[in-house]
Each structure stands twice: as structure tokens, then as C-alpha cells.
Amino acid sequence: MLKGVIIGPTVHYLHHYKMLNHLLDQTTLRLSIEIQNMGYRAMPIPASQIVNWEKQIAHLSHKMIALRAGMGWIGRNNLLVHPELGSRIRIATVLTDMPLKTDKPIERDCGACRKCIDICPVSAIGDTYEEWDRIACLEKLKYYAKAFNVGQYICGLCVKVCKP
């Protein structure tokens, strides 16, 4: 799905992005129903539903939940980096009161890797995730939505090169 992402997003990448989000949303809904059938409360949170694009805010941060669950760390690209899959993951969340086994956050970072910094067309990625330039990234996403005929704020370049 990311093979064709060379200078920006493709319609093919957009299709897979939407299909994965749809699959995640269906999965979290089904999981929530099963949890509720077991007598617990559960609420699925959409995989990719931004409520404010200018501030890039969603209902909650799947990334922060995954970070605290020990699924990875926040990379220079400001995305969750999985130890094996890099940033090539999609995440959704189910909030529940069901007792679950918990894990601990991973104490790791991107080390010497700077691939995402090198590929970012607007230099929005710095040495740490705190240096990520949200505004520069968003402006490029807006450009891509129109220029690459994808109609959605996606890029994929830093995701493609992120392989721990």
C-alpha cells in the first residue's frame, strides 16, 4: 500500500487508509458489543476521526493510549513507532471498565534513525517529537489533498520510511 507513495499520497494509498480505518471501526464496534454482552461497559472510539483539523485534535489520542499500553514510543515524526512495524500501523481504541491485564510503556526511542527527517518535504520533523511542526505538516497535507486528488489530509512519506 505504501509502495507508490514516493513524493506524496496516492489514490491507492487513500483507498487502503480508508479501508483499514473502516475495518478498525467495525472491529472495535464488535469488540465493544462482546464486552457489553459480558456485563461490562464499552465504547468504541473511531480510528481516525479528527474533530479539529487546525489543532489536529480527535476525541482522544489513540497514540497516547497505545504508548501507555506499551505498544511503542512516540517517534520524531510524532507518530507511534511500534518496535517491529515502525509507524506502519493503524490504531483504534475501546474504552471499557472490563478488568484487563496491563503492560508498561516501552523505554525506547528512534536512536540514530533520521529517515523521517530526511524525507519530510516541508522539514516539519525535528530531532524530537516535540519539535514536530504541526502547522507546516498540515499545510502540506492540505496541498496534497488537492494536488494529488486524494481529498483527505494524508501523506504517508514518514510512515513509509519508519522501520526500526
Record the SSE blueprint:
Elements: H1 11-37, E1 42-45, E2 50-52, E3 57-58, H2 62-68, E4 73-74, E5 80-81, E6 93-96, H3 115-119, H4 134-147, H5 157-161
Antiparallel strand pairs: 1-6, 2-3, 4-5
Short description:
By secondary structure, the protein is an alpha+beta fold.
Strand composition percent? 5-15%
Strand order of the largest sheet: 1-6
Q: What is the H/E order?
A: HEEEHEEEHHH
Structural class call reads alpha+beta
Major beta sheet, specifics? 2 strands, antiparallel
Number of domains: 1
Per the principal axes of the C-alpha atoms, what is the gross shape?
Answer: globular
The N- and C-terminal alpha carbons lie at a distance of 19 Å
Helix content: 25-40%
User: Whole-number average pLDDT?
Assistant: 93
Query: Would you report the number of β strands?
Result: 6
Number of helices: 5
Low-confidence stretches: none
Computed Rg: 17 Å
